[in-house]
Design goal:
Helix 2 packs parallel to helix 4 (about 65-75). The strands form 2 sheets. Strands 1-2-3-4 form a 4-stranded mixed β-sheet. It has a two-stranded antiparallel ribbon with strand order 5-6. Residues about 1-10, about 15-20, about 180-190 and about 200-203 have low confidence and may be disordered. About 40% of the residues lie in helices and about 15% in strands. The two termini are about 35 Å apart. The chain is globular. Helix 5 (about 95-105) links the parallel strand 3 and strand 4. By secondary structure, it is α/β, with parallel strands linked by helices.
Length: about 200
């Protein structure tokens, strides 16, 4: 399922939001071409960037579909905010599986990640799987993805914001120093917060 903020009361948006990871890309293109009031923020629950782990999770899509949808969003709204949910430490996730996820996410033009450590719930199929991951290892993997998320967040903010031209080097940025490229291009208060208080040496 892909969730995104959309204009309230528009049934076409509601249909679009339900399961675009399972829709044909052409159908999404048609939806986009016929609509103009899409809010430029998308949050997609990927869960893992490793197809083997997606299979263990019983997800009905592969990471290539996720990558295709991100590319589709970037094509239509280049500066959109795009985030993803990712779970680390799912039972059976090897070091190699995690590296697949890390490398996959590193190469994608995402704006941020929401990172979760797998938490076992009694009575679920996942609770019966072998290959439980140690708490410290889950924490290590989580920290790596959080660090990647912070880097992507700052990159997204820089991509969406211009700075006033007359700011001296070393100036501590304030919100009034920022100039949006175009209203509605995808910049969010969360991204702005990533550059406020930083010095102009970041540019």
């Amino acid at each position: 399922e892909m969730r995104f903020q959309a204009v309230r009361g528009d049934p076409a948006f509601e249909r679009f939001a339900k399961e675009p990871l399972r829709k044909h890309a052409k159908d999404l293109e048609d939806t986009w071409d016929n609509r103009t009031k899409i809010l430029p923020h998308f949050h997609i629950p990927l869960q893992s960037g490793c197809n083997r782990i997606l299979g263990l999770m019983r997800r009905r899509y592969k990471r290539e579909t996720f990558e295709d949808r991100v590319s589709l969003i970037r094509k239509h709204i280049p500066l959109a905010g795009i985030g993803a949910d990712v779970i680390v430490g799912f039972p059976g996730e090897t070091d190699s599986d995690f590296k697949d996820t890390l490398d996959f996410l590193n190469d994608l033009p995402l704006s941020y990640l929401h990172v979760f450590s797998f938490s076992e719930r009694p009575g679920t199929i996942a609770a019966t799987l072998r290959g439980k991951i140690d708490h410290h290892e889950k924490e290590r993997r989580s920290k790596l993805l959080i660090s990647l998320s912070e880097s992507k967040n700052i990159t997204a903010a820089r991509r969406s914001i211009h700075l006033s031209n007359d700011l001296p080097m070393g100036h501590v940025l304030q919100e009034q120093d920022l100039i949006m490229k175009r209203p509605g291009d995808g910049i969010s208060p969360m991204l702005i917060s990533k550059v406020i208080g930083k010095t102009t040496k970041l540019n």
